[in-house]
Automatic annotation (TrEMBL):
Listed Pfam families: ADH_N (PF08240)
Source domain of life: Bacteria
Protein name from the UniProt record: Alcohol dehydrogenase
Domain Enoyl reductase (ER): 57-375
NCBIfam families with a match to the protein in the record: adh_fam_2 (TIGR02822)
Required cofactor names: Zn(2+)
Amino acid sequence: MNSSQNEFVDVLFEKEVMLMKPENTFNSKESVDVGGSERIPSEMRAWEVTSPAPIDSSPSPIHFVKHPVPVPKTSEVLVRVISCGICHTDLHVAEGDLPVHHPHVIPGHEIIGRVVANGPQAGRFNLGDRIGVPWLRWTCGVCTYCRSGKENLCPNSLYTGWDHDGGYAEYVTVPEGFAYRIPSAFNSVTAAPLLCAGIIGYHAFRRANVPAGGRLGLYGFGGSAHLAAQIAIAQGIEVHVFTRGKDAQRFALELGAASAQGVYDPSPVSLDSSILFAPVGDIVPKALENLAAGGTLALAGIHLTDVPSLNYQNHLFHEKVLTSVESNTRRDGEEFLTLADRLKIHPKTTEYPFEKADEALRHLSHGDMQGACVLRISEG
C-alpha cells in the first residue's frame, strides 16, 4: 500500500474510532425529533457483554442495561431495531472465544429495523425504510483484497456486535453502504437469520465447490446450516446432515435431507462436498474421511476448537481440499437475499422476548434446536 493509501486508511479509521466514542450519543434528557414522524429517546435498553465467561456462569457474562442512543455519523443511518437473530458468533463474543475488541460491546449482527435518522451525507435510504444490518460493518476499500473483490479478507475490516455495538438494543447505527434492503416476502422475525446465518451459509456453500447434482454433507444443523440445506436442495443437490441433536435430525429430514445422523457417524454415501458449521475441531478428521476423492470440506465458523492430527493417507490424499470461510462480501449478501426470495427459502425461527437474550444464548449453546433463535425488540 502506498503512502497516499495509508493516509486515506488513517482518515477512515479516525472516523471509525470517533464512531465508537460514548460521547457520540443523543445528550438531551428528552427525546429528540430527527425530522421524521418518530421521536428518538436519549436512552435505550440494551444487552452488553460485561465480562466474557461461559454463558451458564453466575453472574451471566451479559447484562441488561440502560445505554445512550447512538448518533449516526457521516454516511450512517440510525435504525430502530425490530428484531435481531441470535448467532453462534454472539456466543463466542460473550464467552470470550473471540478476543475483546470493544469493551462492554452490545452483541448482535442479524438486525432488522427501520431507518429513523440519517447522518450527514447519508441519502441511500428514506426514513421508515426497512433494512438489514449485517456482520460486516466496514472495509477500507483500498487494500489489495478490497480492490480485487475479496473485501471479506480486508485486514482493516470492522464487524457489528464485535468492533461496534450491535443489535441486542433498541437502536443501532450502520454505514449505509453496508446495509441491505430486505425482500418484502420476509417478515421481520424470519428475515433476521438471513443477515448472517443465511449470507455466511451461502458463502460457505460457494466455497465448498458442490458439483451440480452432487452430494453435500452438513455438520451441525442450526441457523446457518438449515438455510444452506434449503439452498442446496432447491438446486437438486443431495444433502446429508450430521448433528448431535435428535430434534435437529428430525428437522433436517422434514426439510428434505436424504439422511440425518450423529456428527461422528460414517456417511451413508461418499460426499462430494461438506460444510462444517459446528465449531468443533474434533469433527474435521471424520468429515474428511467421509469425502469422496477430490472433495472439499469448508470450515464455516469464525471460531473452531483445535483440530486433531490428520493422517495424510486417510484424510487428505486423493486431492481432498480443506478450506476455511471468512465472513462475506456485500455481493454475497445481495446475491443470497435475491436467491432466498426467488427460491422461497423459509427460515425456521424461535422467537424470544428482548428481555430474555441470555436465555436464548443458553439455548443456543446447548445445541439441540430447530433453525434459529430471534429476539423481538419492537413492533415494526
